[in-house]
Amino acid sequence: MSTPAGATARSAAPVADATRTGSRALFAVCAATLLVLMNYTAPVAVLPQTARSLGAGLTTQTWLINAITLGLAATLLVAGSLGDDFGRRRIFRAGLALLAASTLGAAVAPNAGTFVAARVLQGVASAAILAAGLGLLGHAFHTNHGRSHATARWASMLGAGIALGPLTAAVLTALGSWRWSHLMLAAVAAVLAALTGRLLAESRAERPARIDVPGVLTLGAGLSLLLVAITAGRIGWLRPAVLIPLVLGTLLLAAFVVIEARGRAPMLDLALFRRPDFRIATIGAFFTGLAAIGPSTVLPVLVQRLVGISALGGAGLAFLWAGASFVVSNQMRHHGTRFAPTRQLALGFALTAAGYLAMLGYADAHSWARTIPGLLISGAGSGLLNAALARLAVTSVPLDRVAMGSGANNTARYVGSAFGVAASITVASSLLPAGQTAGFSAHGADVVLLLGAGVAVLGGAATLIRRRVTAPAPAAV
Asked: Where is the Major facilitator superfamily (MFS) profile domain (predicted)?
């Protein structure tokens, strides 16, 4: 029996509509993610110029880089939970508006303290964009193929942003001032905030919206204190300024776990950890931040200081690493469903370790060119990690918890990144030759690479351990 033409047209209309909705969501979320990562990495390439302009010493310079991670890690899970309950588009647009305002604040900052405060707010804004954005994609794409395609595109924006952020900042600094890149990024964020109202459809969980106030307070304060301790530990771990926030932060995080386990509407559903994929996604994200993002964020600064290249040259090296990450992540949209995410993570960690080992000795040889093969190899590893983690973040949780899954995944990633950045700077600035009292050393730079490779190997091993749990997992929606 033939189908009437009118019925065919009516059945095709929702499909076309869904395709348009998904394409708009993918464009808006990818553009905002690109902006977030450009903003995240822009100061790295021009750290000496920024520090000199703001009068920042070596310890404060760590905060110029790490302050945004503090805001990110402390609020990613909160933003994801709020997005699921109150509307992912609403949280996403609020994040873009706050990013525009805080980036403008960084551009006009008169001193280091104001700049650091603006960077913390940038982290809060970025958390809203990343958690709600990946949640929007999880809601817009329902099939395995569609989600693999969308999350691989999203992951490629991480690499593209890391590539373009330092390069843009270096070029604009060479033309005028380090402040110009912040002004440009603030303007783009404002435009995106205005456009996304039309590009995105609202989505939220079908349950009463509640704010887990005790969870928000204990998690935010606990992670903030922990990251303060990690960053302050650069000049000694046994000082009260490190031990007090470290102990208080640990106690608050323990309290958060107890609150979430007993709460009626928890910000983080601890039952999700019964799912092997969710556990692996969280562990893999933490080790990605610790082993891949942390050392790679500090590397351009070390090459500038130890080899003597310009800010633009350092940005060019970062572009090679992030460019390789972008290409590999983008290609995984064609192949993502053919590979198990755990194997993809293990291979990504292996390439990260191999890339770091290939760069050993560049500072002693006083050769930036010796870093190129290793940057390309470790960048490819980062691309595999990003694509696998983005896919797991939305497939390892029920549909009504996709922003929570994204928030948990990215929280683990940026807590690991904060550890990695602080540890890399501490090691590189502590192992100084006799007679040198400040700065970085070639020996310290090699130890950073060796530690990064070792942690990457541990991360790869951890993601391959899929312990079966007999307790029932939460039902998918």
From this structure: 25-471
